[in-house]
């Protein structure tokens, strides 16, 4: 049996943090809090976001290709379809950028085509 009784003026939620309950004496509209929320967010379109992600992926592929070529023995040969070439940091960087650019570009282009037909 619980023998705890509450006083009429006492808050029984002393340890609970409630929304809007600021025990520090500052309100949510104090200077500093309101000004941070009033800053406009950067607005970009979906197309800009996709193009940005596409470019980042192509640049990363080029960077990884360059780094990979530094670890591979010279004299190895790589192929991009019917085209073969000696592996060097520059060649493998171009290979990575082109292969990801073509593959991802085809996928994004196909998705854009399907989306434009169903919108």
Automatic annotation (TrEMBL):
Q: Where is region (Disordered) located?
A: 1-33
Pfam families recorded for this chain? DUF7520 (PF24364)
| Tagged with keyword Electron transport | no
The organism sits in which domain of life?
Archaea
Spell out where the chain crosses the membrane.
51-72, 92-115
Keyword entries, A-Z:
Membrane, Transmembrane, Transmembrane helix
Composition-biased stretches (Basic and acidic residues)? 7-29
Q: What is this protein called?
A: Cox cluster protein
Q: Which organism is it from?
A: Halococcoides cellulosivorans
Q: What is the lineage of its organism?
A: Archaea, Methanobacteriati, Methanobacteriota, Stenosarchaea group, Halobacteria
């Amino acid at each position: 049996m619980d023998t705890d009784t509450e006083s009429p003026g006492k808050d029984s939620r002393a340890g609970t943090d409630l929304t809007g309950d600021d025990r520090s004496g500052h309100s949510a509209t104090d200077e500093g809090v309101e000004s941070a929320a009033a800053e406009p967010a950067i607005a970009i379109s979906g197309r800009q976001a996709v193009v940005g992600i596409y470019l980042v992926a192509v640049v990363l592929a080029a960077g990884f290709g360059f780094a990979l070529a530094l670890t591979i023995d010279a004299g190895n040969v790589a192929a991009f379809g019917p085209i073969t070439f000696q592996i060097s940091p520059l060649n493998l960087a171009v290979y990575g950028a082109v292969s990801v650019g073509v593959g991802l570009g085809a996928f994004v282009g196909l998705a854009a085509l399907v989306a434009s037909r169903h919108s």
